[in-house]
């Protein structure tokens, strides 16, 4: 796979440093320009990473990158991605693709009309732990899977000292954006993308969401729900429960229950998180879940790792690198616009369910996702 090409970055805030750390693990990828509406932030970012600054979007376009990374404030994702697509550039968007379904659908239609690639974060599905879990399922190590429990509880974030969370180039953690957009739109995708790849499109979502802890916004506007829970019904027949919160004790566990055992994983924010198989046996008149597990590993080289940065040990550049490879090879990317739209539609269905709950059919669909070449066996 050819991991080469040039990228330009729009938005140089907190997450941009995580992308830059990942991009440094791909020597063949060059950052040709970076832009931010905050001149001081842009200067600090470019000084730290030795990236060429671009004062305007027009300067970004003039640099003629192979791919533009839209790393702006979530509420700007739609407008910035649209401008890039209209200028003729493929786009990798930080999550969410858009904060409104109609905007995500408009981007999807525009990309198709212009014949341009469009994809969105998260890309942890391309990481070793996700690919190992998927390979274990394909090998039948727990038998046919029947049910999954995925947890994305981040702890009581409003009580955390987040004012002191600073990125490598000096950007503060964007607390107000995080609270305004909400933990579901921000985080559900980390496991939802895995489940979508493993089990296919979601046909219906039964969900509820709530405000439980009085999340504060500086401008007095209402925050997004700080808790959500969803039951996902997949076209394949699989069923999964997905929980998100910034109140409950930290738990990023995944359990997939099959006829002969359970696949267990403790952290989706770590590309190296161990995948474990717990067998289930009948012993005389008892059904026993074994007290020990066996780790399942992918043999051979996988992908570049970045090490731990803050709460995450993820290479944020895996998605852009795979998109560049698809562009160079003239093929469909692993994470494409159909996948991004489906992810957005399902996530919004969960977040918007409210305290009355809702059961919403999902309209969008995507073609089967293929595993990474190093995890295809």
Automatic annotation (TrEMBL):
Q: Which residues form the GFO/IDH/MocA-like oxidoreductase domain?
A: 137-264
Name the Gene Ontology molecular function terms of this record.
nucleotide binding
Which spans of this chain does the record mark as coiled coil? Answer: none
What residue stretches are annotated with the Gfo/Idh/MocA-like oxidoreductase N-terminal domain? 7-118
Q: Where is the signal peptide?
A: none
InterPro entries linked: Gfo/Idh/MocA-like_OxRdtase_N, Gfo/Idh/MocA_Oxidoreductases, GFO_IDH_MocA-like_dom, NAD(P)-bd_dom_sf
An example of a Pfam family matching this protein is GFO_IDH_MocA_C3
Output the SUPFAM superfamilies linked to this UniProt entry: Glyceraldehyde-3-phosphate dehydrogenase-like, C-terminal domain (SSF55347), NAD(P)-binding Rossmann-fold domains (SSF51735)
The cross-references to PANTHER family, in alphabetical order and at most eight, read: BILIVERDIN REDUCTASE A
Q: What is this protein called?
A: Oxidoreductase, NAD-binding domain protein
Organism encoding this protein: Pseudoroseomonas cervicalis ATCC 49957
